Amino acid sequence: MIISSGLLCLITALIGLIGLIKQKQCIALIHIGGLMISAIIEFSTATMSAVSKDQFFMKVNSSLHESVVHYHQDFDIKNEFNNLQMTLGCCGASYFRDYLKIHSTTPSSCKPTSYGFGCVAAITRYMQQYIILLMYLCFIFAILKGIYVTISILLFRKTVGKENSSV
């Protein structure tokens, strides 16, 4: 979504540049419309990031608990979960006792004495900073684009006013 908004903004900027060179009202209006759409996309992305982050963390929670259940049954899950536990320094989905609940031994990648928290908490902590950063950046860019739209509209009205008075 963010990439498409960036591409739209780039295309809109090129259209605006062409509009300045050619001095065509139609091109200037397309430029302003593209900027408005781009600003709305940025604002919507920021809002959705704020609203849907809880959904993401619920999915992480359910997926990791499911992975612990299938830990000894699926070799791929076992390898990925071991890698996750060693990389993030976590143990189990919620805690090392997750393995005891399924009557399993605690894997070597899980060190309950060293890792005092589960992988859900580790992923949540890791992703939280990036989601908040994404949200703030989207809001900032939406505000900047809104200011740019306002300036473009004022310049367009000024240009149209000059053309009407000279005719």
Rough outline: rod-shaped
Largest sheet: none
- Please write the CATH class name: Mainly Alpha
Helix proportion of residues, in percent? Answer: over 70%
| Class by alpha and beta content | mainly alpha
How far is the N terminus from the C terminus?
Answer: 44 Å
Alpha-carbon Rg, integer: 26 Å
Beta-sheet strand percentage? under 5%
Transmembrane segments: 33-51, 133-156
Organism: Schistosoma mattheei
Subcellular location: Membrane
InterPro entries: Tetraspanin/Peripherin, Tetraspanin_EC2_sf
What report would you give on this structure?
With 167 residues, the chain is mainly alpha-helical. It has a single domain (2-166), classed as Cd81 Antigen, Extracellular Domain, Chain: A, CATH 1.10.1450.10. The chain is 80% helix and 0% strand. It has helices spanning 2-22, 25-69, 75-88, 97-101, 119-166. The longest helix has 48 residues, at 119-166. The radius of gyration is 26 Å and the shape is rod-shaped. The chain starts with a helix and ends with a helix. The model has no long low-confidence stretch (mean pLDDT 81). Keywords: Membrane, Transmembrane, Transmembrane helix. It is a multi-pass membrane protein. This is Tetraspanin. It is found in: Membrane. One of its GO terms (cellular component) is membrane.
Keywords:
mainly alpha; membrane; 5 helices; Tetraspanin; Tetraspanin/Peripherin; 167 residues; 80% helix; Cd81 Antigen, Extracellular Domain, Chain: A; transmembrane helix
